[in-house]
């Protein structure tokens, strides 16, 4: 159990940050799922529109420290490759 005022404050702050970061990660996952469903359906127009939303969300996740830079880059690269394979 935290004894010092600073340790108590860190606990409060960590809980708030965990909630914000969880929401941010959930938002990224939602956009990725929309893109993946468009890719699975073979809808190139919807997938193109969805990838335009996914890229800034991944970049924002990196900037906010929710995702590692290489992770976001890998995800975007793989999704782009799948979009290009649609033809």
From TrEMBL:
Protein name, entry field: Small ribosomal subunit protein bS20
Pfam families in the record: Ribosomal_S20p
Domain of life: Bacteria
Keyword Protease tagged: no
Stored InterPro entries: Ribosomal_bS20 (IPR002583), Ribosomal_bS20_sf (IPR036510)
One GO CC term, this protein: ribosome
Organism (species): Sphingomonas floccifaciens
Taxon lineage: Bacteria, Pseudomonadati, Pseudomonadota, Alphaproteobacteria, Sphingomonadales
Keywords: Ribonucleoprotein, Ribosomal protein, RNA-binding, rRNA-binding
Task of the protein: Binds directly to 16S ribosomal RNA.
Family classification: Belongs to the bacterial ribosomal protein bS20 family.
């Amino acid at each position: 159990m935290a004894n010092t005022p600073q340790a108590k404050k860190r606990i409060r702050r960590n809980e708030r940050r965990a909630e914000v970061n969880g929401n941010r990660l959930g938002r990224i996952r939602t956009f990725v799922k929309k893109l993946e469903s468009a890719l699975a359906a073979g809808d190139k127009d919807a997938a193109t529109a969805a990838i335009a939303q996914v890229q800034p969300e991944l970049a924002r996740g990196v900037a906010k420290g929710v995702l590692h830079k290489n992770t976001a880059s890998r995800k975007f690269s793989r999704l782009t490759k799948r979009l290009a394979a649609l033809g």
